């Protein structure tokens, strides 16, 4: 892990990836840019991380070991993804490893310095709770996350979270839940809008063609 002291680069990541929307506290003074080489660990099994990370470039693999020491892949994540919120934030021992599959860049927050601040940040806790609760309740499997197109995952997610045909879920949180980059999410939403499936209305998206959206959710060609 290398720390990059570049305020302009940090500011650009925060703005481009819309990271400030995750928390109430100003992110710039409490964070830094960190880089990881391919095959370098971000988090080790049974060792709480000293940092909470926002993955902004690259791909990581979350894995553990079975009783016969076989490497079991639990999930893969691409930017923008929170790393360390499930255990390190609470100073608990992680039950899996996180390793860089490609060179990675993260915006990191020192938990030794700012754990208490994060634990009292209402917006941050709400985002973490939404991400963890959705993953737990939806039962998204590794197979789904790796084989289903982003369009299918997003269509399902919108249908599950659009009371009265209105989808107002925070998009940064949505991208983290679906393990898709924020930019890719926006491209997919724009495609849905161009196809007349969704319509932008102030702070939410209106489902204009539910039949087509359900066909995408069911992966019907």
TrEMBL record:
<dbReference type="InterPro" id="IPR014710">
    <property type="entry name" value="RmlC-like_jellyroll"/>
</dbReference>
<dbReference type="GO" id="GO:0006355">
    <property type="term" value="P:regulation of DNA-templated transcription"/>
</dbReference>
<dbReference type="InterPro" id="IPR018490">
    <property type="entry name" value="cNMP-bd_dom_sf"/>
</dbReference>
<dbReference type="InterPro" id="IPR000595">
    <property type="entry name" value="cNMP-bd_dom"/>
</dbReference>
<dbReference type="Pfam" id="PF00027">
    <property type="entry name" value="cNMP_binding"/>
</dbReference>
<protein>
    <submittedName>
        <fullName>Cyclic nucleotide-binding protein</fullName>
    </submittedName>
</protein>
<dbReference type="InterPro" id="IPR036390">
    <property type="entry name" value="WH_DNA-bd_sf"/>
</dbReference>
<dbReference type="GO" id="GO:0003677">
    <property type="term" value="F:DNA binding"/>
</dbReference>
């Amino acid at each position: 892990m290398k720390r990059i002291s570049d305020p302009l680069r940090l500011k650009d990541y925060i703005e481009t990836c819309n990271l400030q929307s995750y928390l109430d506290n100003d992110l710039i003074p409490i964070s830094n840019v960190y880089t990881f080489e391919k095959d370098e660990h971000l988090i080790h099994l049974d060792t709480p991380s000293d940092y909470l990370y926002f993955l902004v470039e690259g791909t990581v693999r979350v894995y553990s070991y079975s009783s016969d020491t076989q490497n079991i892949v639990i999930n893969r994540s691409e930017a923008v993804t929170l790393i360390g919120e499930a255990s390190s934030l609470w100073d608990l021992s992680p039950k899996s490893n996180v390793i860089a599959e490609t060179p990675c860049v993260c915006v990191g927050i020192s938990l030794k310095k700012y754990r208490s601040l994060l634990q009292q940040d209402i917006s941050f806790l709400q985002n973490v709770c939404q991400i963890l609760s959705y993953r737990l309740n939806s039962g998204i499997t590794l197979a789904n996350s790796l084989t289903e197109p982003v369009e299918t995952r997003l269509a399902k997610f919108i249908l599950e979270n659009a009371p009265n045909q209105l989808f107002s879920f925070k998009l940064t949180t949505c991208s983290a839940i679906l393990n898709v980059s924020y930019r890719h999410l926006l491209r997919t939403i724009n495609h849905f809008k161009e196809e007349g499936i969704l319509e932008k209305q102030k702070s939410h998206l209106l489902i204009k063609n539910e039949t087509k959206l359900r066909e995408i959710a069911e992966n019907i060609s």
